[in-house]
Design goal:
- It is a single chain.
- The protein is an alpha/beta fold.
- The protein has 3 domains: about 40 residues; about 220 residues, P-loop containing nucleotide triphosphate hydrolases (Rossmann fold), CATH 3.40.50.300; about 45 residues, no CATH class.
- About 45% of the residues lie in helices and about 10% in strands.
- It has a 7-stranded parallel β-sheet with strand order 3-2-4-1-5-6-7, sandwiched between helices.
- Strand 6, helix 8 and strand 7 form a beta-alpha-beta unit.
- Helix 1 packs across helix 2.
- The longest helix is centred in the last third of the chain and has 33 residues.
- The protein is globular.
- About 40% of the residues are buried.
């Protein structure tokens, strides 16, 4: 179903694009149908656009690093969009941090579009709307879409199902490699980046990451296995960024060649996850509305402690 606002966004109107993203984030009526009517280019394969995920623990310098990547892409004449997923208040749902502040140097560039989204408690390090926003930006003909996550943890791996290439940004203060492995970053990373490489401990972290990657490689390396590089840089000093870009583009080239089956599997998992996210959000919204209206007695019983929430949930499931 065609939607005039989304049509205008796809045609390049920035104000319409911003309003369309707000509708996606607000889950406005008709949004899913509008998104479903789009024609994302990524259906045909990786690289059009190149979706680059930037993740890592808070304080790793992801936003400063992203700012440098935008500059490099613009020198290549590329049209760039950034989706920066901020932590959100558990009470209001609004964003706590504003990563766009670190990218203000690109605010007046008509070929750069930067949008923050509140995570709103969504697991996976992404906003619930991130995948839909990426599809819209894809249809709007951006060449590079950077998705910067709120930070990673054991459950925050959803970025790999959205991005073609995932850069995990770490710093010497990020903790030991054992904690990195526990966080599941070896599974999500296509490229490790040790940022703030001028600080003590950077070389040791690089060596440990390289050892960790080496131990995870199959005994007999093949073209179908991507050997994860470990790069170092200092985003604030603008040092080493070009090497990181080269490694990311090398991974994209691998995705377009021998790594295509792996890319296809990742996208397949991402489509299933998107379906489950949308269905679960609809179910939660339905339950919240019901607790306000026809099942208000159930809500009051839960609040008073008179009703066991687990038994209530089990009973609710049998009704559905």
């Amino acid at each position: 179903m065609s939607d005039p606002l989304f049509d205008a966004a796809v045609d390049g109107d920035r104000r319409s694009l911003a309003r369309a993203i707000s509708r996606i984030d607000d889950r406005a009526t008709g949004t899913l149908e509008a998104i479903g009517s789009l024609s994302p280019r990524r259906i045909g394969g990786p690289g059009k656009p190149f979706v680059l995920g930037i993740t890592g623990p808070p304080g790793a310098g992801k936003s400063t690093f992203t700012d440098k990547l935008i500059t490099r892409a613009r020198t290549r004449g590329e049209k760039v969009a950034v989706v920066a997923v901020d932590p959100s208040s558990p009470f209001s749902g609004g964003a706590i941090l504003g990563d766009r502040l670190r990218m203000e140097g690109h605010a007046t560039d008509p070929n750069v579009f930067i949008r923050s989204l509140a995570s709103r408690g969504h697991l996976g390090g992404l906003s619930r709307a991130s995948g839909q926003v990426v599809d819209l930006l894809d249809a709007a003909s951006f060449d590079l879409i950077i998705v910067e996550t709120v930070g990673v943890g054991q459950s925050e791996l959803a970025v790999m199902e959205v991005a073609d290439t995932v850069l995990v940004v770490l710093t010497p203060e990020s903790g030991d490699v054992v904690q990195t492995m526990k966080a599941g970053l070896l599974e999500v990373a296509d490229l490790f980046v040790v940022n703030k490489s001028d600080r003590p401990g950077a070389n040791a972290l690089q060596r440990n990451l390289e050892l960790m990657v080496h131990l995870d490689m199959p005994l007999q390396s093949t073209d179908s296995h991507w050997a994860i590089p470990v790069a170092t840089c200092s985003a604030t000093e603008n040092d080493g960024i070009d090497e990181v870009v080269d490694s990311a583009l090398a991974h994209l080239e691998w995705c377009c060649g021998p790594g295509r089956p792996a890319w296809d599997r990742r996208r397949a998992v991402g489509r299933v996850r998107t379906f489950l996210d949308v269905v679960s959000e609809d179910a939660r919204s339905y339950a919240l509305d019901a607790l306000r209206d026809e099942h208000a007695a159930l809500r009051l019983g839960l609040e008073a402690g008179d009703i066991n929430p687990y038994q209530a949930a089990a009973d609710w499931g049998t009704k559905g």
